[in-house]
Write a structure and sequence with these properties.
5-stranded mixed sheet; Diaminopimelate Epimerase, Chain A, domain 1; alpha/beta; inorganic pyrophosphatase (n-terminal core); 5-stranded parallel sheet; OB fold (Dihydrolipoamide Acetyltransferase, E2P)
Length: 565
C-alpha cells in the first residue's frame, strides 16, 4: 500500500528561539515545537517531569462528594465493592484501588462482569451480586458513566454508587452519589485524557492529600497505572506523560510479585518501555478476560505469595498463546471473506460477520483489518441471540459519530472516535452493512484512504550517533500524541550486507556516501530485497530503537517505508 510521507510543521522562528535557549541540535528543537513546546520552561517540564506537576484532584467535579462518601464507608466499616471492566484498564483499576484501600479497610470485595454473559460495563447481574454480598458502597472503575438503569437498581437496594470513568457521557447522567469523569461537560478538570485507572488514581490522590498521608502510598500505585496508560492507548502528554514517566521507573523496580512473574513470562528485556507493555504485558493481562475469567489478572496483580504469582502468570501466558492462535485464524477468515466479494476494492468500509468468531477477539481482528486495508472496520459475531462487535477507525474518520448515523439499526453502541462497540439484531446485519458503507462514502474524501507517515525531520545517517540517541530517548515515554519520531534519510545504498529473513522480513545494512554501515529491520518488506540489492540509491523512513539482547544494547533503524526512484 502506497504511503504518503508528511513532514510535520514547525515554526522556524520558534525553533530558532528554542535552540538559542536550550543549545541542543536544531532537529530536537523542531521536534519540541511540533509538540507545542516553545519555551525553556515548557521544555524543562517536558524533559524533567515531577509528581508536583500533577493537577489538584479536587478540581475534578464531585471529588469532594466521592471522598466524603468513601470516608463514611471506611469509618462505619461498610461493605465496599469495586466494580471494574474486564480489560487491562479495568483490571488494573481494581488492583490499584484494592491495593490502596486494603491497608485501611478490610470489608472490601471486587467484581468483574463476564464478557460473554454480561458484556461491557455495569450489568444488572453485577448489581444483584452486590446486593447478595450486602454491599453498601459500590465504586465503579473504568465504567458506569452510562449505567443509568443499573445505578437506579443499586439505589433501590439502598446502595450508594461512586462512578470513576473516563468514557464519553451521554446527556443524562446516572443518579450516583458522585461521578468522577473528566469528560463530563460540567467538569473543569484541566486534563481530559486520563485512563480509567488514572481516574481511580486521582481518587486515591485526593484521599491522600485530604488526610495528609505519605505520598509514597501513591507512588507505589504507579506500576499498575502505567500498564493502564500504555494499554488503553491514551495520549501520553501532560499529566499522563508525568504518570507514565514515573510509572515506568516504578514498574522496572516493582515489588509486586505478580507483575515480576508476568514480566519474566513476557521475556522482555529490562528496562521496560511503553512498547513492552503494549506488546508484552498488556496482551497477557487482556487474555484473561478475552478467553476466560478476568479475575485471574486481578489475582495475579494482588498476589502475595511467589508460588501463586507464578501460577497465575503461567495461566495468563497460556491464555495469551491461545488468544494468538484464535486471533490469527479469525483474521485469516476475515480477509478471505472480504476478498471473496468481487467489489471489495471499491468499498470504503469493512463490515464482516461470522457467528462463530470469538467475541473477545473481534476488536483485535478489527484493528488488524484497519492496519492491512486502511479502512474503517467492524467485525461482528453472535452472542446471546444478538449480534455484537467491535469497530476500529482510521485517522480523520469518527467511527462513533458514524455509528450514531446508523443508530436506528442498532440496539446499542458506545466508544469514541477511534474505537467503539455495538450490538444489533441478526435481521439488521445486511442493512447495517449497507448503511455504514453509505455513511463512510458520504462523509469521507479519498485523501484519508491513503495512509500517512508523519515525519519529524529529514536527516543524514551521520547524524545518528550515541549523543543523538541520548537526547532522543529523553522524548520518551513514547505513545499516542508523543510518538517515537520518524525520520527520513534519502539516497542510501545497500552496503552488501542486507539479507532476507524468514517471514518476509528484511535485515538492511545501508550506507550514505562513505559512511559506515547502519543496520535496521524492515518488517514485512522482504519483497523489496532484490530492488535494494541493485545498489541503486533509495530513500527510507524509519524510527530509532535500542535493540536489547542478552544484556547488550545497540541502535537499530526500524524501517517504516522504502521508496525507490
Amino acid at each position: 500500500m502506497e504511503k504518503q510521507w508528511k513532514l510535520l510543521e514547525a515554526d522556524k522562528v520558534q525553533v530558532s528561539e528554542l535552540q538559542e535557549a536550550l543549545n541542543i541540535h536544531p532537529i530536537f528543537c523542531q521536534m519540541l515545537v511540533q509538540r507545542g513546546i516553545t519555551s525553556y520552561d515548557q521544555a524543562k517540564r517536558f524533559f524533567r517531569p515531577e509528581l508536583s506537576h500533577l493537577h489538584d484532584p479536587f478540581l475534578m467535579k464531585d471529588m469532594d462528594k466521592a471522598i466524603a462518601r468513601l470516608e463514611k464507608a471506611i469509618e462505619n466499616n461498610e461493605r465496599i465493592l469495586l466494580y471494574g471492566d474486564y480489560d487491562v484498564d479495568g483490571t488494573t483499576s481494581i488492583a490499584l484501588m484494592y491495593s490502596f484501600l486494603q491497608t485501611r479497610h478490610r470489608n472490601l470485595d471486587y467484581y468483574i462482569p463476564n464478557r460473554d454473559k454480561e458484556g461491557y460495563g455495569v450489568s444488572i447481574d453485577g448489581i444483584e451480586y452486590a446486593q447478595e454480598k450486602g454491599t453498601q458502597l459500590l465504586i465503579t472503575l473504568d465504567c458506569g458513566i452510562t449505567a443509568i438503569d443499573q445505578v437506579e437498581r443499586a439505589n433501590q437496594y439502598g446502595m450508594d454508587v461512586i462512578i470513576c470513568d473516563h468514557h464519553l457521557p451521554e446527556k443524562k447522567l446516572p443518579n450516583a452519589v458522585a461521578i468522577l469523569d473528566p469528560k463530563r461537560s460540567d467538569c473543569e478538570y484541566p486534563f481530559k485524557e486520563l485512563s480509567g485507572c488514572g481516574v481511580a488514581f486521582k481518587l486515591a490522590q485526593a484521599y491522600v492529600e485530604k488526610h495528609q498521608l505519605d505520598w509514597h502510598q501513591l507512588e507505589d500505585l504507579l506500576d499498575l497505572l502505567v500498564i493502564s496508560i500504555a494499554s488503553d492507548i491514551v495520549p501520553i502528554v501532560s499529566e499522563n506523560r508525568t504518570l507514565a514517566w514515573f510509572g515506568l521507573q516504578k514498574l522496572n523496580s516493582t515489588k509486586r510479585l505478580g507483575l515480576r512473574a508476568l514480566i519474566a513470562k513476557s521475556r522482555r528485556e529490562p528496562p521496560l518501555t511503553i512498547s513492552d507493555i503494549v506488546f508484552g504485558l498488556g496482551p497477557m493481562i487482556n487474555a484473561a478476560g478475552r478467553l476466560a475469567d478476568a479475575e485471574q489478572a486481578v489475582r495475579l496483580m494482588l498476589s502475595a505469595e511467589p508460588s501463586v504469582a507464578h501460577d497465575y502468570a503461567r495461566v495468563l501466558e497460556y491464555r495469551n498463546q491461545l488468544r494468538k492462535e484464535f486471533d490469527r485464524r479469525i483474521a485469516a477468515e476475515a480477509k478471505e471473506l472480504l476478498e471473496s466479494d468481487p467489489f471489495w476494492q471499491q468499498r470504503k468500509s469493512i463490515v464482516l460477520y461470522q457467528p462463530h468468531w470469538h467475541k473477545g477477539l473481534v476488536g483485535i481482528v478489527a484493528a488488524r483489518m484497519v492496519e492491512d486495508y486502511h479502512r474503517p472496520a467492524i467485525i461482528l459475531t453472535q452472542s446471546e441471540g444478538k449480534i455484537v462487535g467491535s469497530a476500529r477507525s482510521i485517522k480523520g474518520f469518527d467511527i462513533h459519530q458514524a455509528l450514531g448515523m446508523c443508530k436506528d439499526l442498532l440496539i446499542s453502541y458506545g466508544g469514541h472516535a477511534h474505537a467503539a462497540g455495538l450490538s444489533l439484531y441478526p435481521e439488521n446485519v445486511i442493512f447495517f452493512q449497507e448503511r455504514f458503507e453509505a455513511v463512510v462514502d458520504t462523509v469521507t474524501t479519498d485523501e484519508i484512504f491513503t495512509p500517512e507517515i508523519p515525519i519529524a525531520a529529514e536527516i543524514e545517517l551521520k547524524d545518528i550517533t550515541q549523543a543523538f540517541w541520548n537526547v532522543l530517548r529523553q522524548f520518551a515515554p513514547f505513545g499516542p500524541s508523543n510518538r517515537n519520531p520518524n525520520f527520513v534519510v534519502k539516497k542510501v545504498r545497500d552496503t552488501g550486507f542486507s539479507k532476507l529473513l524468514r517471514d518476509n522480513h528484511l535485515r538492511v545494512a545501508i550506507g550514505q556516501s562513505d559512511s559506515d554501515p547502519y543496520y535496521g529491520i524492515a518488517f514485512g518488506r522482504g519483497d523489496d530485497y532484490e530492488k535494494i540489492k541493485t545498489r541503486h540509491p533509495f530513500h527510507i523512513c524509519f524510527n530509532l530503537q535500542e535493540n536489547k539482547w542478552n544484556g547488550n544494547a545497540r541502535l537499530q533503524l526500524v524501517v517504516k517505508d522504502i521508496k525507490f526512484d
